[in-house]
Amino acid sequence: MKEVTILGETLKYEVIYDMELGWHTQFYLGEESKTSRKYWLFGPKITKRYPKPVFSIGSNIENPNYSRDEIRDILEEQVKTKVFRKREIENGELV
Description:
1 helix
């Protein structure tokens, strides 16, 4: 995964091609861990860490047909609405 810093937030991203959706870019912030047993009901517990998805953009941000300013505008808008607003809501700042 690659990293990009937008508005002081360092996000990891992954460009994905899907037959149904086409090119899209998935962005991640932080990690989450999931614990499960090695075998269905018994065995040692295994904890795996996965990147926590934040938002997705319906295009390839590494496409040379998009200018740097266009991609930056899209990413800044998404970070403001998805990341910053989520933190505001968690802190009780609804209005």
